[in-house]
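Our consortium's second objective concerns turning raw sequence data into structural hypotheses that experimental partners can test. To show how far this objective has progressed, the report includes one record in full. It was chosen at random from the queue rather than selected for favorable results. The single chain below, 414 residues long, was entered without modification.
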Amino acid sequence: MKNRLARGRVFYGWYIVASGFALMGTTMGISVNCQTLFINPICSDLGYSRSQIALVATIISACTMMVSLFSQKLFSSFGIRRLMQVACFLITGGFLIYSFAIELWTFYLAALLVGISYALLTSISFSVILTNWFEDRLGFAIGLAFMGTAAGSMIFTALTGYWIELFGWRSAYRILAGVLCVITIPIVYLFVYPKPDDLGLEPLRRRDESGIPVVSRAGTGTLKEARKTVRFWLMAFSIALMSYAMSTLTFTIAPHLNNIGYSGTFSANIASASMGVLIGGKLALGYAFDRLGTPTATLVSCILVLVGLSGMVVAGSALSIAMIIVGVGFGSAFGTVGYQLLVQSSLSGYSFPSIYGFLMACSNLGGLIAPLNNGLIYDATGSYRIGMILASFMVLLAGGIFQVVLRWKNVSAM
């Protein structure tokens, strides 16, 4: 099948995009975006506090951060494809452990397995893979592949909320383990090839007026060299702040709406609707980066995240619900689609695989701190609103730094 697909009329990179869509929709949609739906039933059933169960999401983010930090060494030592193959079994096992868990340490062990495998199956691997396959239309390819996270989240958030109410949280975990198994293993083993060279092909390239492919010159700077620049650390700091804010917005929708009086089903449906809008939001953002340029697309993204956070602060009306859906649907697309294009634009002189893992570790650091801190804020105040306000200030600071790095001409000398 490998040779047959390589000789097909359709550029094989689009099969890679389709594989990314399905894998990220399943693994990210289930492992991360559905996790908040389990907080209330687990706490009610086993008597744990919100912050104790929220630590599950923090462990997942910590594992993702560690994988990101060492991704270049892992990929060069073991190969992206082999690591992804192992991760398919780890993530299935993690969800089975969730379903039998009673003690806190068991939840945390499962989160460890899920966090490692989730990182290897989703954005860290596919950011490198898509960059290998696409020199032209990269923004569109990224947006299309990462649409899967929103599509999967929309589908599995709604289904998981239904399964929890109908069968209980343990059975819901077992159903999700089965879904992960039957989707991830065939796709990774049959369709995912990290480089065009693996199939004797070349990347999709832009062509000049005479139809000749234009070969892009990849950056050659190393991570060690990038760390010596102010620009690199400004980007790292801003990405961490932005990820904290987007994690706060996205992953507290269901518990926050439930706590202020909405039913569990309604809260899950709003989270699902947000993911539905995010499907188009990711594709639209990829297109915006290609057409409007990185600075403008980044500014719009930050404004939309602020809209969503404001809706969470004043939640209780139809308008606020609409603000939440728009903020998540269009603003949060920046976290998956925008970062890769932002890094390539602002740090183009450096090798993408060498610096992207470190910067995504900074992103994961924000995601690591957010659920734990928001859980502590809730335990102390009985509300998530203070957390939303804090996240809003982070967006303002991060958005300002992004614009300075991208627009200030003198910053190129940094």
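The partners drew two points from this record. Confidence is low (pLDDT under 50) at residues 208-217, 409-413. Residues 2-200+218-413 form a domain with the Growth Hormone; Chain: A; fold (CATH 1.20.1250.20). Both points have been shared with the crystallography group to help prioritize constructs.
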